[in-house]
Amino acid sequence: MAMGFGSRYPHSVAFLLLAVSVLPAMVVSIGINYGQIANNLPLPENVVPLVRSIGATRVKLYDADPRVLKAFANTGVQFIVGLGNEYLAKMRVAKQAQDWVTTNVQAFLPATNITCIAIGNEVLTFNDTSLSGDLLPAMQSVHSALVTLGLDKQVTVTTAHSLAILETSYPPSAGAFRQDLADYLAQILDFHVKTGSPFLINAYPYFAYKSNPKQVPLDFVLFQPNKGVVDPGSNLRYDNMLFAQIDAVYSALASLGYKKLPVQISETGWPSKGDRDEAGATLENAKKYNGNLMRLIAQKNGTPMRPNSELNIYVFALFNENMKPGPTSERNFGLFKPDGTPAYQLGLAGIQTIGNTSTGLSSGSSRSSGSPPASSSTGYVSISYATERYSSVGLALLFPTALLLLPLLL
Ligand SMILES: *[C@@H]1O[C@H](CO)[C@@H](O)[C@H](O)[C@H]1NC(C)=O
Ligand SMILES: *[C@@H]1O[C@H](CO)[C@@H](O)[C@H](O)[C@H]1NC(C)=O
Ligand SMILES: *[C@@H]1O[C@H](CO)[C@@H](O)[C@H](O)[C@H]1NC(C)=O
């Protein structure tokens, strides 16, 4: 996959000048989502220093773009590669899965440290029974291919879920999965245990705020100081929504008997710009959300429920992506603009973010065709739609009790 890129990529010397390859003073092990639904992003080799500049040691892709995997060879950066929703049915066939793994994973090992393959994105919340039915067989098939190639010890297989797989997410101690997804999930969770792979969830406090800005306190979603809320079921205090969301997932897993399954936050982030009706999508808020999040990660604390489990979080996203459909916010989740300058300063004391960026530069690459890259898998393009749908269906669905508790916060 991820083929069909144009072959002409104007060399950008300016970009190299800009790229400050200074390692962060405080090494924060964050992950970053490198989405490419855009026609103006820099060359992958020029992206390496950008990833370093924010202290990211892990990168998640929505495809297995060979240009990216080559550019990051021998950098020590760990990769989750993706396989789009449109490939699930095909992957059920053993030969197809093996071909895919050979071409997109094995070919880049060991120089590029691919540690995980994410099969599909937010598949179960599309409510498409045929697609949902293909998910586990595709995961099994890709895993079998890894076993055959002797790669299953170093590369795990997983899938990333939307938080909307939860029926109850508040209070966190009452977290529970949607009943109608129970069968799919039970089998997927067994697969994780058998193969030792992590459970991935995309969690966006932003969408909860956007759909209910009058009730959801901004400080609570932006990790700003606030009194927080106490979960009556556990007596644990929460002062930010992301941790409440993560603990709801832990509770949902625990209630099915999966107390030890490692959980990773495969996406979270905040847009720096939005349409007039998109509350909260501002530069200041994005800077607070992502800056505070990185500071939290640097402290290496876990959530109230799992204080000793280090957070494993992938920020969404590396770049603003100009070809993403949907409202303006969709195209403005990036920490960087396409020219490689920061979308805003994260303001991380002690962490070297990209410095002198006044230089600005012309786009490092342009695809000769106007068509979206193959990386725009249906799953990825539709992320926000799935999220939109669940969030507009209601905060009440996700945070029913939160609404009752909110008066305590205000
Ligand atoms: C790849 O990452 C894994 C997980 O952190 C690590 O254990 C392994 O040593 C890395 N491999 C290489 C070749 O850097
Ligand atoms: C999927 O189904 C659930 C439960 O029936 C519903 O609440 C949700 O809105 C649906 N989601 C989409 C994206 O259609
Ligand atoms: C950029 O570099 C100049 C001179 O080297 C320095 O004075 C300035 O503080 C730097 N700006 C930033 C944002 O790091």
From TrEMBL:
One annotated GO molecular function is: glucan endo-1,3-beta-D-glucosidase activity
Which residue positions does the secretion signal occupy? 1-29
Q: Which SUPFAM superfamilies match?
A: (Trans)glycosidases
Protein name (database record): glucan endo-1,3-beta-D-glucosidase
- Quick check: keyword Signal in the entry? yes
Stretches the record annotates as Disordered: 358-377
Q: Which reaction does it catalyse?
A: Hydrolysis of (1->3)-beta-D-glucosidic linkages in (1->3)-beta-D-glucans
Superkingdom to which the source organism belongs: Eukaryota
Record's family? Belongs to the glycosyl hydrolase 17 family.
Q: What GO biological process terms are annotated to this protein in UniProt? A: carbohydrate metabolic process
Gene3D superfamilies, sorted: Glycosidases
Enzyme Commission number(s) of this protein: 3.2.1.39
UniProtKB keywords: Glycosidase, Hydrolase, Signal
